[in-house]
């Protein structure tokens, strides 16, 4: 009986040993398989990452080339724009040229003592400024006589002053221009009064028809 029990124990021990050996072999094989699988997975992950990095690098290179082209275009446009204003400034005329009025020459007029007293004080009076659309002088004003040349000179000066005032008023209104306009208006008024005095003198000095016929003092029969 004891021998049978001992045999059974030995058999169970041997079976247990076999089982333990078989389990160790299985665990080693499974660990080897799991390690190989992990390596494959890591390699696949690294390959995917490498592809992604390559794609990112290509896209960045494309963006860099595009930016370089844009920089070149912008530099060319800036050069063209900087060269164009220089040409425009050379071709553009002056916008507000300075208006220089003609020089005034004031002539003294001899006044006849037989004239009315208001004629001598007429140049000191300020008459209203004549309108720019003043009619041209009549042929009576330009007739032959001692004051014809002076009348023509006064008319030319008046026309020149009117043109100067028109060009000055069309320009930019500034303080200096306003002062010059006021001086021109005063001089125009003085010249207008002188013109009236000369016209009055010319009218008074014109010979009448009756005086020309009986100028010798002998009446006609």
From TrEMBL:
Residues 129-138 have a biased composition (Pro residues). Residues 110-123 have a biased composition (Low complexity). Residues 84-94, 208-221 have a biased composition (Acidic residues). Residues 17-37, 78-144, 201-221 are annotated as: Disordered. This is Uncharacterized protein. It comes from Symbiodinium natans.
């Amino acid at each position: 009986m004891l021998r049978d029990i001992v045999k059974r124990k030995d058999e169970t021990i041997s079976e247990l040993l076999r089982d333990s050996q078989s389990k160790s072999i299985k665990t080693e094989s499974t660990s080897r398989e799991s390690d190989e699988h992990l390596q494959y997975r890591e390699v696949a992950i690294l390959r995917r990452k490498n592809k992604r990095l390559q794609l990112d690098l290509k896209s960045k290179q494309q963006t860099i080339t595009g930016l370089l082209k844009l920089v070149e275009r912008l530099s060319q446009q800036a050069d063209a724009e900087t060269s164009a204003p220089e040409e425009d400034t050379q071709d553009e005329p002056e916008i507000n040229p300075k208006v220089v009025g003609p020089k005034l020459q004031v002539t003294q007029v001899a006044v006849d003592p037989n004239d009315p007293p208001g004629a001598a004080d007429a140049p000191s009076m300020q008459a209203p400024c004549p309108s720019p659309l003043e009619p041209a002088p009549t042929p009576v004003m330009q007739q032959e006589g001692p004051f014809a040349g002076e009348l023509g000179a006064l008319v030319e000066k008046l026309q020149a002053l009117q043109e100067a005032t028109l060009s000055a008023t069309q320009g930019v209104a500034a303080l200096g221009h306003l002062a010059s306009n006021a001086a021109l208006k005063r001089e125009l008024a003085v010249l207008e009064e002188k013109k009236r005095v000369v016209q009055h003198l010319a009218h008074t000095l014109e010979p009448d028809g009756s005086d020309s016929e009986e100028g010798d003092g002998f009446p006609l029969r």
